[in-house]
Design goal:
Distance between the termini: 58 Å
Helix content: 25-40%
Number of helices: 9
Number of strands: 11
CATH superfamily of the largest domain: Gcn5-related N-acetyltransferase (GNAT)
Number of domains: 2
Structural class: alpha+beta
Largest sheet: 7 strands, mixed
Order of helices and strands: EHEEHHEHEHHEEEHEHEEH
Strand content: 25-35%
CATH topology of the largest domain: Aminopeptidase
Radius of gyration: 22 Å
Shape: elongated
Length: 282
């Protein structure tokens, strides 16, 4: 059922082994009969005290049940694997998974259905671990100049608390993130054409979902949010060596105002006007 995409949540005891599982981890399933393997990625961890609590909260059709037997589903079904005593000792977990993108017609069709219209929304505290995992995956990619400490959980918590962290979520979990920085140390630079602006930063797209225009999608959504806040322009800095990001921002309509040495790298400072407040007020 995982292979077909019908089942996306594995139910397990939250014992020492599962306590090591983190969002972003890879899990390989093996068919003991055929030897066939299936690679998956952990997108969320749903922890509960017992399966009784879990069954009340999670969609059971995503947990291995079908329309034919879901009406008879009961937490007692899991007691054949994990006793009540074990549940009380360790708690339980629903491990939400997605299949990685592969070059097969079946898998491509699956991802088209799931990722055709990803949802853009404000991040919540519950998204913090998933966003941190996304940042970590991006840090290992070519062109990325982020270090081991930045961005990290401090930035995530601050952005969530201020309402300035947004995520792009598909059927495979959070695949993109972007932050608004209302005030920045670069604001006082004389190079800017547009002074009444906000900065965008910490733009990340899951490496497995590159090439779908997701960064442009997030930037377009942010433009509408900033317009609603009365912000007339967007500023950003992008590492000169980050060639894909530079191309994406230029495609989105940003222009380079100067180059600057910051954070041990060379950066382009870019800006884009998103509306004329004088015309809007008429």
């Amino acid at each position: 059922m995982i292979k077909s995409g019908e089942k996306t949540i594995e139910l397990r005891l939250y014992d020492e082994k599962r306590q090591k599982v983190k969002v972003g981890d890879k899990i390989v399933f093996t068919d003991n009969t055929t030897g066939e393997t299936l690679n998956t990625t952990v997108t969320k961890l749903h922890r509960f005290n017992t399966f009784n609590d879990l069954y009340k909260s999670l969609p059971l059709l995503k947990c291995g049940y079908t329309t034919e037997n879901v009406d008879k589903a009961t937490p007692a079904d899991m007691e054949q694997y994990y006793s009540v005593e074990e549940q009380n000792k360790y708690e339980v977990v629903g491990i939400e998974l997605c299949r990685p993108k592969q070059n097969t017609d079946e898998t491509v069709a699956y991802f088209v259905r799931k990722d055709l219209s990803p949802t853009f929304r404000a991040a919540t505290p519950a998204d913090a671990e998933a966003v941190l995992s996304l940042y970590t995956r991006v840090k290992g990619e070519p062109f990325c100049v982020w270090n081991a400490y930045y961005p990290g959980m401090d930035e995530i918590r601050r952005d969530v608390q201020s309402g300035n962290l947004f995520v792009l979520e598909s059927g495979c979990g959070i695949v993109g993130a972007i932050s608004i920085v209302p005030e920045n140390e670069m604001d006082d630079r004389a190079v800017w054409t547009h002074r009444e602006a906000a900065e965008i930063a910490r733009v990340a797209v899951d490496p497995a979902h590159r090439g779908q225009g997701l960064s442009l999608t997030m930037v377009a959504h942010i433009e509408e949010i900033l317009k609603s806040r009365g912000i007339a322009a967007i500023h950003l800095s992008v590492a000169c060596k980050n060639i894909p990001a530079c191309k994406a921002y230029r495609k989105a309509g940003f222009s380079t105002v100067c180059e600057a040495d910051m954070y041990e790298n060379r950066y382009f400072l870019m800006e884009k006007a998103i509306f004329d407040p004088t015309k809007e007020s008429r």
